[in-house]
Amino acid sequence: SSVSAIGNIISQLIVPNQQNGGKIAWRSVAAYASFALDFAVSGPLIHYFYIWMDKLIPKKKESATFDGIKRVVFDRFIFAPPFILLFLYAVTMLEGSGHEAAIAKIKETFWPILKMNWQIWTVFQFINVNYVPLKYRVLFGNAVALVWSVIVAVKRRQLAQ
After folding, report:
1. Mean pLDDT of 82-99
2. What's the number of domains the chain is made of?
3. What is the spatial distance between Cα 94 and Cα 69, in angstroms, rounded to a whole number?
4. For labelling alongside 5, which of 62, 78, 96, 138 has CA 20 to 30 A away?
5. Residue with more model confidence, 63 or 37
6. Host domain of residue 135
7. Alpha-carbon span 96 to 14, nearest angstrom
8. pLDDT digits (tens, 9 = 90+) for 21-42
Protein backbone atom coordinates (compact mmCIF):
# COMPACT_ATOMS: atom_id res chain seq x y z
CA SER A 1 0.00 0.00 0.00
CA SER A 2 1.04 3.58 -0.25
CA VAL A 3 1.57 3.71 3.54
CA SER A 4 4.33 1.09 3.42
CA ALA A 5 5.87 2.57 0.28
CA ILE A 6 5.94 6.08 1.78
CA GLY A 7 7.43 4.65 4.97
CA ASN A 8 10.16 2.94 2.95
CA ILE A 9 11.00 6.16 1.08
CA ILE A 10 11.18 8.12 4.34
CA SER A 11 13.47 5.44 5.82
CA GLN A 12 15.79 5.73 2.83
CA LEU A 13 15.96 9.48 3.31
CA ILE A 14 16.83 8.97 7.00
CA VAL A 15 19.37 6.18 6.41
CA PRO A 16 20.56 6.27 2.78
CA ASN A 17 20.96 2.92 1.07
CA GLN A 18 24.75 2.48 0.78
CA GLN A 19 24.38 -0.43 -1.66
CA ASN A 20 22.54 1.92 -4.00
CA GLY A 21 24.92 4.88 -3.75
CA GLY A 22 22.53 6.71 -1.44
CA LYS A 23 19.81 6.85 -4.10
CA ILE A 24 16.24 5.71 -3.48
CA ALA A 25 16.05 1.94 -4.03
CA TRP A 26 12.78 1.86 -5.94
CA ARG A 27 12.70 -1.94 -6.01
CA SER A 28 12.61 -1.90 -2.21
CA VAL A 29 9.83 0.70 -2.28
CA ALA A 30 7.88 -1.48 -4.72
CA ALA A 31 8.46 -4.56 -2.54
CA TYR A 32 7.01 -2.82 0.52
CA ALA A 33 4.06 -1.59 -1.54
CA SER A 34 3.49 -5.00 -3.13
CA PHE A 35 3.42 -6.93 0.14
CA ALA A 36 1.16 -4.47 1.84
CA LEU A 37 -1.45 -4.25 -0.90
CA ASP A 38 -4.51 -3.80 1.23
CA PHE A 39 -6.66 -5.79 -1.18
CA ALA A 40 -4.33 -8.76 -1.44
CA VAL A 41 -2.32 -9.56 1.67
CA SER A 42 -2.00 -7.46 4.78
CA GLY A 43 -5.38 -5.74 4.74
CA PRO A 44 -7.47 -8.94 4.59
CA LEU A 45 -5.18 -10.78 7.02
CA ILE A 46 -5.44 -8.01 9.59
CA HIS A 47 -9.16 -7.42 9.02
CA TYR A 48 -10.14 -11.07 9.39
CA PHE A 49 -7.81 -11.55 12.33
CA TYR A 50 -9.66 -8.76 14.17
CA ILE A 51 -13.02 -10.37 13.37
CA TRP A 52 -11.77 -13.77 14.58
CA MET A 53 -10.29 -12.25 17.74
CA ASP A 54 -13.56 -10.44 18.53
CA LYS A 55 -15.42 -13.77 18.29
CA LEU A 56 -12.80 -15.67 20.25
CA ILE A 57 -12.35 -13.07 23.00
CA PRO A 58 -15.53 -10.97 23.11
CA LYS A 59 -15.61 -7.88 25.31
CA LYS A 60 -17.71 -8.40 28.41
CA LYS A 61 -18.52 -5.52 30.75
CA GLU A 62 -17.84 -7.51 33.90
CA SER A 63 -14.34 -8.50 32.75
CA ALA A 64 -13.46 -5.66 30.37
CA THR A 65 -9.96 -5.04 31.71
CA PHE A 66 -8.99 -8.71 31.75
CA ASP A 67 -10.52 -9.24 28.29
CA GLY A 68 -8.58 -6.23 27.01
CA ILE A 69 -5.32 -7.66 28.27
CA LYS A 70 -6.14 -11.08 26.76
CA ARG A 71 -6.86 -9.46 23.39
CA VAL A 72 -3.53 -7.62 23.34
CA VAL A 73 -1.58 -10.70 24.44
CA PHE A 74 -3.38 -12.71 21.75
CA ASP A 75 -2.54 -10.11 19.10
CA ARG A 76 1.08 -9.70 20.18
CA PHE A 77 1.92 -13.41 20.53
CA ILE A 78 -0.42 -15.17 18.07
CA PHE A 79 -0.66 -12.68 15.19
CA ALA A 80 2.51 -10.57 15.26
CA PRO A 81 5.23 -13.27 14.99
CA PRO A 82 3.88 -15.11 11.91
CA PHE A 83 2.86 -11.82 10.28
CA ILE A 84 6.39 -10.46 10.70
CA LEU A 85 7.86 -13.71 9.34
CA LEU A 86 5.59 -13.47 6.30
CA PHE A 87 6.47 -9.80 5.85
CA LEU A 88 10.24 -10.34 6.04
CA TYR A 89 10.11 -13.29 3.66
CA ALA A 90 7.82 -11.61 1.13
CA VAL A 91 9.65 -8.28 1.08
CA THR A 92 13.04 -9.96 0.64
CA MET A 93 11.68 -12.07 -2.23
CA LEU A 94 9.97 -9.04 -3.81
CA GLU A 95 13.24 -7.11 -3.61
CA GLY A 96 14.66 -9.72 -5.98
CA SER A 97 16.46 -12.04 -3.59
CA GLY A 98 15.86 -15.77 -3.59
CA HIS A 99 14.51 -18.17 -1.01
CA GLU A 100 17.90 -18.75 0.67
CA ALA A 101 18.49 -14.99 1.01
CA ALA A 102 14.99 -14.55 2.46
CA ILE A 103 15.63 -17.26 5.06
CA ALA A 104 19.00 -15.68 5.92
CA LYS A 105 17.32 -12.27 6.26
CA ILE A 106 14.70 -13.75 8.58
CA LYS A 107 17.40 -15.34 10.75
CA GLU A 108 19.23 -12.01 10.92
CA THR A 109 16.32 -9.63 11.45
CA PHE A 110 13.30 -11.48 12.87
CA TRP A 111 14.11 -11.32 16.58
CA PRO A 112 15.25 -7.65 16.63
CA ILE A 113 12.20 -6.61 14.59
CA LEU A 114 9.78 -8.69 16.68
CA LYS A 115 11.14 -7.12 19.88
CA MET A 116 10.74 -3.64 18.35
CA ASN A 117 7.23 -4.59 17.27
CA TRP A 118 6.33 -5.57 20.82
CA GLN A 119 7.85 -2.36 22.20
CA ILE A 120 6.20 0.00 19.72
CA TRP A 121 2.90 -1.64 18.74
CA THR A 122 1.72 -3.00 22.10
CA VAL A 123 0.34 0.30 23.42
CA PHE A 124 -1.27 1.13 20.08
CA GLN A 125 -2.76 -2.34 19.79
CA PHE A 126 -4.17 -2.11 23.31
CA ILE A 127 -6.00 1.04 22.21
CA ASN A 128 -6.91 -0.45 18.84
CA VAL A 129 -8.37 -3.80 19.95
CA ASN A 130 -10.14 -2.42 23.01
CA TYR A 131 -11.39 1.06 22.10
CA VAL A 132 -11.42 1.47 18.31
CA PRO A 133 -14.58 0.13 16.62
CA LEU A 134 -13.91 -2.94 14.45
CA LYS A 135 -14.60 -1.09 11.20
CA TYR A 136 -11.88 1.50 11.98
CA ARG A 137 -9.15 -0.80 13.32
CA VAL A 138 -7.30 -1.26 10.02
CA LEU A 139 -7.42 2.51 9.41
CA PHE A 140 -6.07 3.22 12.90
CA GLY A 141 -3.39 0.60 12.32
CA ASN A 142 -2.42 2.21 9.01
CA ALA A 143 -1.72 5.50 10.78
CA VAL A 144 0.68 3.74 13.14
CA ALA A 145 2.00 1.57 10.29
CA LEU A 146 3.51 4.57 8.51
CA VAL A 147 5.87 5.13 11.43
CA TRP A 148 6.40 1.39 11.84
CA SER A 149 7.33 0.99 8.14
CA VAL A 150 10.01 3.63 8.53
CA ILE A 151 11.41 1.91 11.63
CA VAL A 152 11.45 -1.58 10.06
CA ALA A 153 13.04 -0.39 6.82
CA VAL A 154 15.73 1.52 8.73
CA LYS A 155 16.42 -1.51 10.96
CA ARG A 156 16.64 -3.91 8.00
CA ARG A 157 19.05 -1.57 6.23
CA GLN A 158 21.21 -1.07 9.32
CA LEU A 159 21.45 -4.82 9.93
CA ALA A 160 22.39 -5.38 6.27
CA GLN A 161 25.26 -2.86 6.28
Report:
1. 88
2. 1
3. 36
4. 78
5. 63
6. 2-160
7. 23
8. 788 888 777 777 776 554 567 7
